[in-house]
Structure formats: structure tokens, C-alpha cells
From TrEMBL, chain A:
It comes from Hibiscus sabdariffa. This is Enoyl-CoA delta isomerase 2, peroxisomal-like. PANTHER family: ENOYL-COA HYDRATASE-RELATED (PTHR11941), ENOYL-COA HYDRATASE_ISOMERASE FAMILY PROTEIN (PTHR11941:SF75). The lineage of its organism: Eukaryota, Viridiplantae, Streptophyta, Embryophyta, Tracheophyta. Pfam families: ECH_1. It comes from the Eukaryota.
From TrEMBL, chain B:
Pfam families: ECH_1. The lineage of its organism: Eukaryota, Viridiplantae, Streptophyta, Embryophyta, Tracheophyta. This is Enoyl-CoA delta isomerase 2, peroxisomal-like.
């Protein structure tokens, strides 16, 4: 499922195994628990890297689990349940008191892409892997917070349209060019190394975690509101 | 006026004749009627192409008809009437259950540019024709829903400023570069062919029309609200 390790100031959250890392209630529970631990152990200079093993970062919600309900109505209810349950994961990432990097060595689709986008930075491969919102192809509409993530994280309206309305499978180079990801590298090793380098660079700034999280929430006000986060003012500068 | 034809899965809405294709209550009624038919005949794989004959896609609202009211007050009322009526056309395009392409072989100004932007994709000529919001030059303010359209369709704030506040006449190459249109081609024929090619590509995806329309409205929430559209969730994935 997923593991958490600490290497110096870096927290590394890994989706383990060679599967599609589908997001279901169990994984959501694990993610919330681990993110809670990360928050509890945060100090100035901390940074989070979320990564995965295998061909996928995550291929989205566990539609098999939804279908196992046994009826169209049941499947729909299970899917809506997962949609609602995932909001707290986005909220936890949005309020995490440290910089966050999604380190993609495989495909990120649907909720998997939203999960990646909920981080401050995305680094991905340029030689393999795509970003893809499959919903239009499988006949699902976007939850409100998915729309908010795209609207507030991706400024280019054409890129949003291409990803959400056209089901574009976006590779690394295009994702960098269009401002969706920070950088793209050749191969898994390079992505992981670059992610650690970036995390260490950001960590050197020794930002105050609570302030960092408030500034982050201020950048994404609609998303913050939709996932149930409020904000506060901190006015005691480090001088 | 405008005609509607169907060729295979493609619907063609054509402004006929060599005039400026000015938008007045008759034309609006005509458009609404045709769009209604298109909606009624929609199937997965349907695509709409809106195009025009002659030098203009459309030069905007029929200010001559407005002035024929005979007084400044009357003209102002007639113009306001057209602005309000036109909201329904925008709403109809925004909720059309299929991809839409505005195929511009001539100038699109003011209401004409709004009509074009209300489509999912714009293809235009690079050798002739401009996109132009004439309002600043004609001393007319921009209706609220038109502001929402520009704000949600064009991410680049400088582009919005240049188009709305500076009365820029934007040619094809600049429109592509600055993210206003999808592509620009040399000559009328190339534009028409490219539009059909693109429509066929999109049609091959066989998207569910209702889902497509909901995802589209989710991309343009302020505009949707301002033209009176609500939204709904669809959670029965096609697997």
C-alpha cells in the first residue's frame, strides 16, 4: 500500500508494489494516517516527497471496488463515497506545514493526477508516463474540487480544456512547456534524484511550516474552501 | 441568415451570404432554433462546426437595427435587448452535448468574437481576418457575461487586456501564439478542411454528450452561472 520513511529532513511517502495504486477507502485511510504523522513530526526545513513504484503513480479511483457493489446504483454510491473521502487527503496536503513534491515515475490519471497536482511541485519523466484525466472517456463528470484544483493550479485555460474536455494524454515535455509540471527528466533514477535535490533546496530555506501552509492556502482559495479549510493571519515576522 | 446541415456525424451551422452577419433578434432566434435541432439529433461522435461565407464570420450586434429605433434611448434599449437575448445562444453552446468548433474564414468582432469564443475550439485564417473587440472604440462597455467568457477562456491577463482594453485587432499567428485559438491556416479552404479534420478526430472519441457538456460547464463555472446554467453529477462510468 503505502509507506513512510524519513531521511534527514525529508519525508518520503511511497506507494509500494507494481500495481496501479488505485485509490480506495483503505488507501485513503492509510494516506490520511501517514500525512498526519508527517504533520506531527514537521520541523523547519522539512519537505515531503510522494512517489510510487512500478508503471503507475496512480491510475485513479478503484472502479473495480465500486463495481463490486453489484449494481449500477451501488457502484455509483461507492464511487461518490471515494470522491468525498478523498477530499480530506487534498485538504491534508494543502495544509501540510512544509513544501511538497510529487515525484512521478509512472502514469498519473484521474484522481491520481489530482493527487499529484495537490502537491506544490510535480517532477515527472519525459521518456515515459502521461498525465491524463480519463473522465471524459469513461463518462464521468468532474467533482467540484477536481475542477477547483485545475482552475487554481493551471493558469492556461487551453491546457485545462485539453486535459479535462479533450482527454489529452500529456507527456513530460508538453507538461513542462504548458506549465503543468516543474521539470521532466529521462528515466526513473533521474526523476528520483531531481526530486531529492529539489526537496533539499527548498528545505534549506527553513520556512516556518504554519506560515508556509497559510500562504499556500491563500494561493488556492476556492480549492481550500471546497475541501473545508479556513485560514488565519500570522503577523509576527522573523526579524 | 444561417443554415444547418448534417454530413455524417458532423453538423454545419453556416452564416450564408456575403454580408457582415450582424446579430439581431431574428438571427438569434434562428441560431437558437438550429442549436435546438442539433441538440435533439446529437449522438456520441457528433460534432458541431460553425462557419460563415464571405469576408466576415460576424461583425457583432446589429447596431443599424438598434439605431432604427429612432432615438438614443430607443437604440440603447434595443442594444441591451440583443445583449440579453444573446445569453441564450452562449448558454446553448455551453450546454451542447458534443464538441464545437468555430471555423473562422473572416473577421470576428464584438458579438461575433463572443460567438466564436463560445465554442470549444477556434480555427482561423492566418493570411486574412482578425479577432477584434470593438467596444472600447465604439464607447460601449462589456456585458458581465462577456467578461466572464474572456476571463475563463483566456488565461493570459495581458491578452485579455490587449483584446478588451486596447482594442487590439489580433491576426491568426498572434491568436495561436497567445492561446486564443487552436490553429491558423493559409486560406479559406485550408481552414474549412482543418476544421473537418479536427471534428472527425474529436468525433472518433465517441464521448457521451451529456457528460461532455457537464465537464465543459465545469470548466467555465462563472460563465455558466451568468448565462443561467446549473449542473449535475454523472457517476456511472463506462468500463
Amino acid at each position: 500500500m503505502c509507506t513512510l520513511e524519513k531521511r534527514g529532513n525529508l519525508f518520503i511517502l511511497t506507494l509500494t508494489g507494481d500495481d496501479q495504486h488505485r485509490i480506495n477507502p483503505k488507501l485513503i485511510g492509510d494516506l490520511l494516517s501517514l500525512l498526519s504523522q508527517v504533520k506531527a513530526q514537521a520541523t523547519r526545513g522539512s519537505a515531503l516527497i510522494t512517489q510510487a513504484q512500478g508503471k503507475f503513480f496512480s491510475n485513479g479511483f478503484d472502479l473495480d471496488w465500486a463495481q463490486a457493489a453489484g449494481s449500477e446504483q451501488g457502484a455509483s454510491e461507492r464511487l461518490l463515497h471515494m470522491v468525498e473521502s478523498f477530499k480530506p487527503v487534498v485538504a491534508a496536503l494543502l495544509s501540510l506545514p512544509m513544501p511538497t513534491i510529487a515525484s512521478l515515475t509512472g502514469h498519473a490519471a484521474a484522481c491520481g493526477f489530482v493527487f499529484a497536482l495537490s502537491h506544490d511541485y510535480i517532477i515527472m519523466r519525459r521518456d515515459r508516463g502521461v498525465l491524463y484525466m480519463s473522465e471524459v472517456d469513461i463518462g464521468l463528470t468532474m467533482p467540484d474540487y477536481f475542477n477547483a484544483v485545475f482552475r487554481e493550479k493551471i493558469g492556461d485555460a487551453s491546457a485545462r480544456r485539453d486535459l479535462l474536455l479533450r482527454g489529452l494524454k500529456m507527456k513530460g515535455d508538453e507538461a513542462v512547456k504548458r506549465g503543468v509540471v516543474e521539470a521532466a527528466y529521462e528515466g526513473e533514477g533521474e526523476v528520483r534524484a531531481a526530486s531529492v535535490r529539489m526537496a533539499e533546496e527548498l528545505g534549506k530555506r527553513k520556512w516556518q511550516g504554519e506560515v508556509y501552509a497559510e500562504i499556500r492556502k491563500g494561493l488556492f482559495p476556492q480549492l481550500s474552501a471546497v475541501v473545508g479549510l479556513s485560514h488565519k493571519t500570522i503577523a509576527t515576522p522573523k526579524l | 441568415m444561417c443554415t444547418l446541415d448534417k454530413r455524417g456525424s458532423l453538423f454545419f451551422l453556416t452564416f450564408t451570404g456575403d454580408d457582415q452577419h450582424r446579430i439581431n433578434p431574428n438571427v438569434i432566434g434562428n441560431l437558437l432554433s438550429h442549436l435546438s435541432q442539433v441538440k435533439a439529433q446529437a449522438t456520441p461522435g457528433s460534432v458541431l462546426i460553425t462557419q460563415a461565407q464571405g469576408k466576415f464570420f460576424s461583425n457583432g450586434f446589429d447596431l443599424d437595427w438598434a439605431q432604427a429605433a429612432g432615438s438614443k434611448q430607443g437604440a440603447s434599449e434595443r442594444l441591451r435587448h440583443m445583449v440579453v437575448l444573446f445569453k441564450s445562444v452562449v448558454a446553448s453552446l455551453l450546454s451542447l452535448p458534443m464538441p464545437t468548433i468555430a471555423s473562422l474564414t473572416g473577421h470576428a468582432a464584438a458579438g461575433g468574437f463572443v460567438l466564436a469564443l463560445s465554442h470549444d475550439y477556434i480555427i482561423m485564417r492566418r493570411d486574412r481576418g482578425v479577432l477584434y473587440m470593438s467596444e472600447v472604440d465604439l464607447w460601449l462597455t462589456i456585458p458581465g457575461y462577456v467578461n466572464a467568457l474572456f476571463r475563463e477562456k483566456i488565461g493570459d491577463a495581458s491578452v485579455r487586456r490587449d483584446v478588451l482594453l486596447r482594442g487590439l485587432k489580433m491576426k491568426g499567428d498572434e491568436a495561436v501564439k497567445r492561446g486564443v485559438v487552436e490553429a491558423a491556416y493559409d486560406g479559406e479552404e485550408e481552414v474549412r478542411e482543418a476544421s473537418v479534420r479536427m471534428a472527425e478526430e474529436l468525433g472518433k472519441r465517441k464521448w457521451d454528450g451529456e457528460v461532455y457538456a457537464e465537464i465543459r460547464k465545469g470548466l467555465f463555472p462563472q460563465l455558466s452561472a451568468m448565462v443561467g446554467l446549473g449542473h449535475k453529477k454523472i457517476a456511472n462510468p463506462r468500463l
